[in-house]
Batch of 2 targets.
Target 1
Amino acid sequence: MNHLTPNESLKDILSASEFNHFVYPADLFQQRLKEEFFRTNRNSQPFALIKIYAKPFEIFSDWNKNVKAIRSWKISVLTMLSEIDFVDIIGFLPNGGIGLIFLNTDIEKLILIRKKILRNLSESKTIDSLRLHKNKTPIFDVFLHTGKVEENSPEEDAAIKKFNKESNPFFTLSRLLYTDTVLPQTLKRNCQMFVKRAIDVVCTSLALICLSPILLAIAIIVKCSDPKGPVIFKQIRVGQHGKTFTMYKFRSMYMDAEERKKELEHLNETSGPTFKMKNDPRIYPMGRILRKFSLDELPQLFNILKGDMSIVGPRPPIPAETATYTSWHNMRLAVKPGLTCIWQVSGRSNISFEDWMRLDNQYIQNNSIKNDIILIAKTFKVVFKGEGAY
């Protein structure tokens, strides 16, 4: 393949020779970005995605008249390009501009690059024109991925906040999420998410109306089975992008279930951080029936109406489980959790933890409205049979 020339928005400012590197077309660059994303999830070696846009009137006022401003912008970009190693990646962005992938790069390296840019601008006496441009749009949009996918990381967030404060208006730094690479926010995907949310609201509302007598009957059964405790069991769960929320269930266990869990952990019948027992003594008799047919999950219809969950999506884990996740496990937090997913129709508790995680990631990479409808239909069949639930 021949060396590509810069796209229309950059060609008047940068020549192809100034890149001194193979430039990927937009589709192949996006594919390389995915590959590096998954690589980092395996080995935790961080990388930075840097987006360079050349939309003059969004960056400088009177661009065509301000030769000094153009020169300062070009010096900044060329300084950035001078840091490219032979293993790093350059490519066009789908919405215009150039993307740079700096491998094995963390915030400390970004700070060094920023200092080098400022030094070059000072030596060329153009730094003032860059600092005083009217529009405060940063020159570089930077996204850092350390392998902590969709995970709350206060230390990393604090470091990013500090970097942004010190870098304004040259850089804006944020974390690179699964949705930025594998699930980019395209018009098609945004429309799909709108339709999915509309289906969630309409179908859940109708379900609550139709199932209200059953919900009332289950509530009476729960109260009669164990009068000491509440009907609804509330538990903190981890949702999309690591955000926690309160999930609702009909209580199927005795009130002292959590206290008794430690003495039963050696009897765990599943792998990974989850706990499952076929004959869990903490579950009262009618609770077993509720679990077998997933009736205890019905209050989560209210979670769906609130927007914390969706009808179809990976099951929401508890914080203690996500604390033990590896990077690739956390990818399942890229979308809203749901009532059902591939795991639920493929054996549920009979599936190992690792296979469960793989099935959730398979759903995320191939999710569509059509696949959601298929999964919902399969779920009814599995629930009526009571397969794999305990």
Target 2
Amino acid sequence: MAGIVSYGAYVPLFRLGSGTVGWTAPVEKAVASFDEDSITMAVAAAIDCMNGMDRRTIDGLYFATTTSPYVEKQGATTVATASDLRRDILAADLTDSLRAGTNALRAALDAVTAGSAKRVMVAAADMRVSTPRSEFEPIFGDGAAALLIGDEKVAVNIVGSYTVANEILDVWRSYGENVVGSWEDRFVLDAGYRSVLPEAISGLLNKYKVEAKDFAKVVYYAPDPRRHGEIARRFKLDAAQVQPPLFGTVGNTGAAFALMMLVAALEEAKPGDKILLANYGDGADAFILEVTEEINNIRDRRGIKGHVAAKKLLRDYQMYASWRGFVQMAAAARRPEMTMPSASAVWRERDKNIRFYGVRCKNCGYEQYPPQRVCTKCHAKDNFEDVRFSDKRATLYTYAMDYLQPVGDPPLVIAVINFERGGRAVTMMTDRDINELKVDLPVEMTFRKLFTARGVHNYYWKSMPVRM
């Protein structure tokens, strides 16, 4: 039976919370940094999901989001390339619905069941923006989840599913708009969420002749904490059955929300547990999942717990507002405007910049980045093989801070890092506290944006302190 082979997640480091100057909400939420978007978060979740696995065994990647950085350009290919998957895979975007994550899960399950693929990665990520000080602002959070679907070494069998399609204008974001819109609350809830999600859950229970009490955990989408509690009462769920939502710690992460809660449930699941998963958005999806013994072999992920525990509060709300483009921050010094990166150069150097390939000397085994023609250790010439550096740990060799460069989180830190087993790179450092920087600080790589110019996003790998 096909099911979930592995899971992973990503929650940004930064939070808006009670210690943030200007943040008036009584809750905390995760916010993507100025150099993050749904693509970079999906890459982080996918890499967490593939920890210790052979990436060459993956035959497809489905990218689910409502906030793709491009309107016309596939995000899945960027996620797959940065994750260093094979070129001969099926890459597809599933977008425009809060249900995109479970739509992608269903599509991946169908592909594996039909035999057209052995393993398919589902990476869901969202970075939805609300109007400042609106009712949505304390609720919306940023994050990502990834599930690897396959038919061997299955940790969670997907026993069955039920789907409802429902045409309704409840929440939306039109072409050219950045913030989410919504209709009147009573209509949105009565004609939408309160009727459609229970319809899908009830349909699933009736189809497979099971009851709500049969499940160890029930994981389901909700637009806010109050509505989440309403569903639990409607189906008379015990408190222990209800997977705690991420409100107050991460927030509603849109297309990734239900899958992120599922990852949190799997982190605590035991073999034999039955889990009900339900998601909402222009209809609803519901699934019956059953945990197997293989779950114990994939516990070494950061997942939700690891990422939620490692966090930093933003100093002030104004910084967040500048990251989202609500306010314009004055630059410390005048600089020429960024120019659009050369499309031909990006294509030509995609292995070095997006896959983050260096080389390994076939003569002495020394590894180095960036790729060279002559080995710096044994001086052999043109005798190398590609090696991935994106998942290598490194240490900080030296660094410099530029207070004049216009960046979202000044100062700009330029770091020279030494990789394990060889290789030295000059990188930008992100998600860092300048008071904690020191020589030999352990760092890791993270896929981020360098800048955006004329609608083109220039992605690259940055270093950051190891997230503990």
